[in-house]
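for the writeup, i need someone to sanity check this before i put it in the appendix. the sequnce is what the collaborator sent (i think, or maybe the updated version? ugh). structure was predicted straight from it, no edits. if anything looks off just tell me and ill rerun, i have time this weekend
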Amino acid sequence: PQWSDKNLDFNLDLPETKYYGSEDLIAQVWQNVIGNAIKFSKDNGEISIAIKNDADYIAVSITDNGIGMNEDTLQKIFDKNKK
């Protein structure tokens, strides 16, 4: 319903990929990142999700037409929030 309300299109390039790790943790990552893409996308926009497989790694690309992040936010993207 979140993307339907904004009339978002999804462009998916998701070849079959074998991942050996925590299913719960990777699901949480997907939900968070895709949720943010939906949240910050403009109405009638597009979200693209692609997976690229290599012998040594899996690369995931998620792009949207949202507001983006400023340089300060990008520098802290992987910092844990400390209270």
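The two ends are 32 Å apart (CA to CA). The longest helix spans residues 23-40.
thx in advance!!
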